[in-house]
Specification:
This protein is mainly beta and about 850 residues long. The protein is about 15% helix and about 35% strand. The protein folds into five domains: about 260 residues, TIM Barrel (Alpha-Beta Barrel), CATH 3.20.20; about 150 residues, Beta-galactosidase, domain 2 (beta-galactosidase, domain 2, 3-layer Sandwich); about 130 residues, Sandwich (Jelly Rolls); about 110 residues, Jelly Rolls (Sandwich), CATH 2.60.120.260; about 100 residues. The strands form 14 sheets. The chain has an eight-stranded parallel β-barrel, surrounded by four helices. Strands 52-33-54-60-56-57 form a six-stranded antiparallel β-sheet, with no helix packed on it. It has a six-stranded antiparallel β-sheet with strand order 34-51-35-40-37-38. The radius of gyration is 31 Å and the shape is globular.
Length: about 850
């Protein structure tokens, strides 16, 4: 139990100092909202077993405010219980309550219904938005305040916002001041931090007093320039008397070593412990073409897999944390500088390696091997040259000149190319995968050099190194044999092969109620209560030849007269749809997730963007407007009177400089119109009656409200051959809709109903647009579920939850990123012997088929 009278946490040049202990901290992301509550304790223990000191934890606002004013902190949303378990596990916590978190989570945790409020300023110092944030902080901050380190809890820091320097916040100082004041008003007295996503520390903190900057570094692990970049930020914060806190970075411990020697005192690799987006919670983001769907399987290759498997990187974690514990305050208070004396490196390495000058004497030099091949290097010292072996994908931490008196040992460790993972009166312990060298000396004696063989797993090498009357006991072990502070742990891994599943039953259970409500225009999903889930739309298209759909997302299934016509996922880009003489029109629009980042290239990638069918128009007329554009001077040589050219048709040697094309469009003053810039290759500025907007080649459309379009100017960088056709469409709104909202709660409710059915077997064929429920028997225990087939979407349910969704091979499928798109996880605690699947066929070149399904055992 923590002694409340002495427990302290402070932020100083040595980093986060807990109870006076100055030590570099390693921190793993571990997210309660991506795990069943039943495995929280085990996952925390797994992190502890790697030697990591801390975890960082987002608190997603929309995970707890599930609808406006409806709050849930029970069950697997009981974040207070999770924080208490972290404390019991001996882990400190960096809490990250947002309000925005990114994290590839639905909407970045901003509730989607905020987008229904016109002119609300998301992530702005705007009263309505701050009012909603205050309601969230009124519930989240007391939970954190009661569990601060100084009050017997685990919370050692609270991060406000997330990577604000990526976002166009108009008044960052006012916004971050408001968040700070809310936190302090709830009794938060541990350090407040704010992380920069692209190195703009003032952009992240707003320059607000009382908020310390932190940094997220995501370099290419093979980059030769990691060290000089990180040292630059270490110097910047050192000028302010602050430490370099790295709140997110890559998971490779080779990269983490490079950051450590470059001055970082908090190392928090993002998603070191992976998880699952259970429920309708993944986001859409800009990691695709440019849009992409995040997988339910949330896995960036961290040392713990989403299903709890320990990966080889856990051994590297134990070695690095043992190294930081051994050097303790000397390392935490070290000063970083460019390393000298490293040369003749036989493999790709750092362009400017780093060296830490340890407090109290000695140095640590990082020598990376950025390749998959073994290498060598030479290190010049006061004792001469030493050749060192470099394991593939490694960063040797060369200790030089370390006084040993603090460990109860005589003399000085003059040189060690193996990792120093322990030292006390009994001797020194090292870890290495390759042969290594150690050098000791005592005053007045000649330094003694010892060459150490590379140990095998389970077979440490023991040496007595003697200089005169002084001896040092040395053990060098394989990294796999380095234990965490609490001792060895049993490895967790795969224990069996995947099993093909059969025993499927097709249920006589409806997939929707069919109860609809009338709307004049097609509403967005959120307006009819579908914050997550799907919305069904129907209307008449009698006498209409073509539709224009603006802003639809995320997954859109269209049918005419009950026959599947199209499936697309275009992230809100405008789509033309031929009607071909049909009478009725139906659409099912499923929300995959809301944008977790802010990207203006596509409407659905903008933060706060809404979901649903969007605006649906009939195309009443179309006219070619490619010609009769005047070319204005400015950076081009066009004279006055202005020459007349086709759009993009100006010829000039002044490539790259703006060219402006202007004309009046033949709008009627009463109708809506859409201008299509077909063939647009680069973003351009379109000024409509003086009001400018940026148009992306990913969605080259400009909507013109009635009366707009009398004066249109298109400005783009001049590039020969980059012009294209332009068309003006006159639009009429499609009216008289029947709409059935089907939020996630309704779908989960249907999935839980009892139903009879008929036995079916794989492969299971469907018609395009057909959907039905099937139950599938699953062996006991935790299972990874995989689905094979084409043109089929599968939603899997168990334990009153959506396990996740899989979209099998399909030309209409967007890019999936973030993890394995074909795997879902049935946790052992949720497995009652089967899963319920909602399967839907999509239109394509062949017939939809679910070919088969397998279940592989998992640790949990």
């Amino acid at each position: 139990m923590t002694d409340l009278s002495t427990a302290t946490v402070r932020l100083g040049p040595a980093g986060l100092v807990l109870d006076g202990l100055e030590e570099a901290l390693l921190c793993a992301s571990l997210f309660y909202f991506r795990l069943p509550r039943e495995v929280w304790e085990a996952r925390l223990a797994q992190v502890r077993a790697t030697g990591y000191h801390a975890i960082d934890v987002y608190l997603p606002w929309n995970f707890h405010e599930t609808a406006p004013g409806e709050w849930d902190f029970a069950g697997r949303r009981d974040v207070a219980a999770f924080l208490d378990l972290a404390h019991e596990a001996g882990l400190a916590v960096v809490a990250r309550p947002g309000p925005y978190i990114c994290s590839e989570w639905d909407g970045g945790a901003l509730p989607s219904w905020l987008g229904l409020e016109t002119e609300i300023g998301l992530r702005q110092a705007e009263p309505r938005f701050l009012g909603h944030v205050r309601a969230w902080f009124d519930r989240a901050m007391p939970i954190l305040a009661e569990r601060q380190w100084g009050r017997g809890g685990a919370v050692v820091a609270v991060q406000l916002e997330n990577e604000l320097d990526f976002f166009d916040t108009e008044d960052r100082h006012a916004y971050m001041t408001a968040l700070r004041d809310m936190a302090v008003g709830h009794g938060i007295d541990v350090p407040l931090i704010a992380c920069a996503g692209q190195g703009d520390l003032v952009g992240a903190t707003g320059g607000v007093e009382g908020i310390a900057p932190a940094f997220n570094f995501y370099p290419d692990d093979r980059s030769a320039f990691v060290e000089p970049e990180v040292r630059r930020y270490a110097d910047l914060v050192a000028e302010r008397g602050l430490p370099l806190l790295v709140t997110e970075t890559n998971r490779s411990h080779t990269t983490l070593r490079r950051l450590l020697v470059s001055g970082a005192t908090l190392l928090a690799p993002y998603l070191q412990a992976s998880g699952y987006d259970l429920g309708y919670t993944p986001s859409v983001g800009n990691w695709g073409d440019p849009g992409g769907f995040m997988t339910h399987d949330y896995d960036f290759g961290g040392y713990l897999s989403p299903v709890g498997e320990a990966r080889p990187e856990t051994a590297e974690a134990r070695v690095l944390t043992a190294f930081t514990r051994t050097l303790g305050p000397a390392l935490a208070k070290a000063r970083t500088t460019e390393a000298e004396g490293v040369h003749s490196v036989s493999v790709a390495t750092s362009a400017s390696p780093s060296r830490l000058v340890l407090d109290g004497g000695g140095t640590v030099t990082g020598v990376p091997n950025l390749t998959g091949e073994a290498g060598t290097a030479s290190v010049a010292t006061g004792l001469g040259e030493f050749a060192i072996a470099l394991a593939p994908h490694s960063c040797a931490l060369i200790v030089q000149g370390l006084p040993l008196a603090g460990f109860g040992l005589p003399g000085v460790l003059r040189f060690a190319s193996a990792d120093l993972v322990g030292a006390d009166e009994s001797g020194l312990r090292f870890a290495s995968r390759v042969p290594s060298t150690v050098v000791f000396s005592t005053e007045g004696e000649t330094p003694i050099v010892a060459e150490l063989d590379a140990p095998a797993v389970g077979e440490p090498k023991r040496y007595t190194v003697q200089s005169g009357s002084t001896a040092w006991e040395v053990v060098v072990m394989h990294p796999e044999d380095v234990h965490a502070p609490d001792g060895p742990v049993e490895p967790t891994g795969v224990t069996g092969e995947p099993e093909a599943l059969g025993g499927a039953v097709r249920l006589a259970l409806e997939t929707r109620t069919g109860s609809t409500e009338a709307h004049e225009l097609a509403p967005v999903s959120e307006a009819v209560g579908v914050l997550r889930g799907r919305t069904h739309y129907a209307t008449s298209v009698e006498g209409i030849a073509e539709l224009l759909i603006e802003g639809a997302g995320d997954i859109v299934d269209l049918a005419f007269d009950g026959v599947a016509a199209q499936t697309f996922a275009r992230f809100g880009a405008t789509v033309r749809v031929p009607v071909a003489g049909a009478g009725s029109f139906e659409a099912v629009v499923e929300t995959w997730g809301h944008a977790n980042f802010d990207d203006t290239r596509l409407p659905g990638l903008a933060i706060g963007s809404l979901r649903g069918l969007g605006r649906v128009w009939s195309v009443a007329a179309s006219e070619d407007v490619s010609a009769l554009w005047t070319v204005e001077g400015g950076d081009q040589w066009a004279g006055d009177p202005a020459p007349l050219r086709s759009l993009g048709g100006w010829s000039s040697t002044r490539i790259g400089r703006p060219a402006t094309y202007r004309r009046s469009l033949p709008v009627d003053g009463t109708s809506h119109h859409a201008l299509h810039l077909d063939g647009l290759e680069r973003p351009c500025e379109v000024a409509v009656d003086g009001a400018s907007r940026t148009v992306s080649p990913n969605d080259p459309w400009v909507h013109l409200a009635p009366g707009e379009g009398r004066d249109v100017a298109v400005t783009m960088p001049h590039w020969p051959g980059s012009g294209g056709a332009a068309a003006l469409l006159r639009l009429d709104a499609i009216r008289d809709w029947q709409v059935e909202p089907q939020p996630d709660t309704a779908l989960i409710g249907l999935a839980g109903r009892e139903s009879a059915g008929d036995t079916v077997a794989f492969p299971l064929e469907l018609e395009a647009g057909e959907e039905f429920w099937i139950d599938v028997l699953v062996p006991a225990g935790g299972r990874s579920l995989r689905f094979e087939g084409s043109q089929v979407r599968v939603s899997a349910f168990a334990h009153g939850e959506l396990l996740g969704r899989v979209w099998t091979d399909d030309a209409n499928r967007p890019r999936f990123t973030g993890g394995d798109p074909g795997r879902l996880w049935l946790p052992g605690a949720w497995n009652t012997g089967g899963v319920r699947l909602l399967v839907r066929g999509t239109i394509g070149d062949g017939r939809p088929v679910l070919s088969g399904m397998t279940a592989a055992p998992t640790p949990e």
